[in-house]
Design goal:
alpha/beta, six-stranded mixed beta sheet, 4 helices, 31% helix
């Protein structure tokens, strides 16, 4: 099902893996990439994956989308979780790639029902654990 504006399709596996992350919590994160005019799953993060492991999943010179299930404890000592959507678009990636990812992002995000926060990052400091914590709390 391609979008007329961006010409981008979303592989059903993307939605299935996201539902597993959201409902069953069998993945900590999912990294997506655009391949042959379709958004596909590139990497699934283990439930015990650290945020540093997740950050290492992003190539330094290519765009990606990702979701991360962030667990935290509230000031009332309650265990909570928030799902973040991250649009990774490093300055060193090709202009055409940045344009394709930017024009496809909103449609792809709509396919993933349950995202609570969005981050857009051009370098790792813009999606550091401190920023994620600050947004979640």
């Amino acid at each position: 099902m391609a979008n007329a504006a961006s010409g981008m399709a979303v592989d059903d596996n993307c939605k299935l893996r996201f539902l597993e992350l959201k409902a069953k919590r069998i993945h900590r994160s999912i990294v997506f990439k655009i391949e042959k005019q379709e958004v596909v799953v590139e990497k699934l993060g283990d439930p015990n994956e650290s945020y540093d492991d997740f950050m290492a999943s992003f190539p330094s010179d290519e765009c990606r989308y990702a979701v991360y299930d962030f667990d935290y404890i509230t000031s009332e000592n309650c265990q909570k979780s928030k799902i973040f959507f991250i649009a990774w678009s490093p300055d060193t990636s090709k202009v055409r790639m940045k344009m394709v990812y930017a024009s496809s992002k909103d449609r792809f995000k709509r396919e993933l029902d349950g995202i609570q926060f969005e981050l857009q990052a051009t370098d790792p400091s813009e999606m550091s654990l401190d920023i994620v914590k600050a947004r979640a709390l």
